[in-house]
Amino acid sequence: MRSIIGILTIFICLDAWIWLRLDRMLRGTHRPWLWRTILGMLMMWVMLSAMLSVAERSLMATENRIVPRWVPAGVYIWHFLIMPLTALALLGGSIMNRLQQYARRAWARPPVVEAPPAPAPSAPPAPAPPLWSRRSFLAATAFTVPPLATAGLTGIAMGQLGHFRIRPFDLHLPGWPAALDGFTIAVVADVHTGVFSTPGMLTDIANATNGLDAELVLLPGDLINISHADLPSALDMVRSLRSPYGAYMVQGNHDVIQGPGPFNQTCRKAGVPVLVDQALTLAPRGVPIQLLGTRWTPGYRGMVNSVDQTCKQRDPSLFAIMMAHHPHNWDHAAARAIPLVLSGHTHGGQIMLTQNIGGGPLRFKYWSGLYQKPGSTLIVSNGVGDWFPLRVNAPAEILHLTLHPGEPDNSARA
User: What is the share, in percent, of the chain residues with pLDDT greater than 70?
Assistant: First the structure.
């Protein structure tokens, strides 16, 4: 919770800085009092909406909230996307103005002293200055473009919420038991129950997952967004998932924002197994395999320790499937000869300009889909829910895996 308050404080300080910068620019416009009044009302609305959204979404369950979803959607899009771009544009404009002033001073010629000119005959009065100077136009543009962009993207985001695809993967894995040829797994990652979900969306996720008739359901983290008040409805959804060999989950970073202990205890009391650096042996179709689950831990060293702790319980005679919320766990898991790792966390990069340009490669080594090394395969889900409302070229999804035995390393590729 402290981290959320810290982020909110930073955002409000940046809001205030942008407010002051734009207010100064608007003083030179036509009817500045009108522009500045509208700016003040907009910025006060943004700040109050941010504080209200954080308070409500962090403390109250989804069904008890009164603020419509478009309000936090606009707050998120402004603060995580439009505001940083606006701040950079204002800062860049300020730097350019300073450089131009220094350049004019450096290249200015000293004034030439001349005799005073003879009085000129009376001239007609000078024309009135234009209502819109270049400076006024730039100030008005800087004022109008950010809120219009925020409103437009919020509308697009609201149309995306609740929509997801089914993404199939047909995998040939070395060491997979021949008796389990065609075994199916549904991967439901990053549900993020809370900030942008509704009971109807949770029902749709459950119905779509059950429609796959998967033999095993795995949830690799971020079942909720922030508030543990959302856990009951999220766990009701998990318990409604039907599969012959059960549903299992691991922690995600959002799950433990309000503490890992209460999250684990609530899930287990509800009968939903959470693997925390643990191993579990399943026997689908009478054939034993091992399911491994790592706990959420930030930082590379924490990931290594978690994978090591989990692998101490590994039975090398069994095929192992590991759930690890962060896909960077795969590097160490592959070094420990884990043949299949399932992850989420990245949301497919969230904002992707192309398949390989965008938020995914800027933040992660592995961000969506299939990755393979000799003897080990990683599948990264884009996730079915959202903490941030807008997606670009990173659609929400439920994964449907079909597993087949394969010759050693035949399916491995860089």
Answer: 87
Residue 376: strand, helix, or coil: strand
**Which helix (H) or strand (E) segment is 324 a member of?**
none
| CB contact set of 35 (below 8 Å; sequence gap of 6+) | 26, 29, 139, 140, 143
pLDDT in tens, 307-342: 999 999 999 999 999 999 999 999 999 999 999 999
β-bridge pairing 247-249 and 278-282: unpaired
* Residue-wise DSSP of 5-36: HHHHHHHHHHHHHHHHHHHHHHTTSSSHHHHH
Q: Which domains are assigned to the chain?
A: 2-106+134-159 (no CATH), 164-406 (3.60.21.10)
Distance CA 207, CA 210 (A): 5
The interaxial angle of helices 231-239 and 199-210, nearest 10 deg, is 20
- Check if the beta carbon of residue 305 is closer than 8 Å to that of residue 336: no
Please give the C-alpha separations between residue 195 and each of 68, 232, 236, in angstroms, as whole numbers.
10, 15, 17
Question: Using CA atoms in the order 56, 60, 63, 69, what is the torsion angle rounded to 10 degrees?
Answer: 20
How many residues comprise the chain? 414
Q: Which residues, listed in sequence order, are joined to residue 163 by a DSSP beta bridge?
A: none
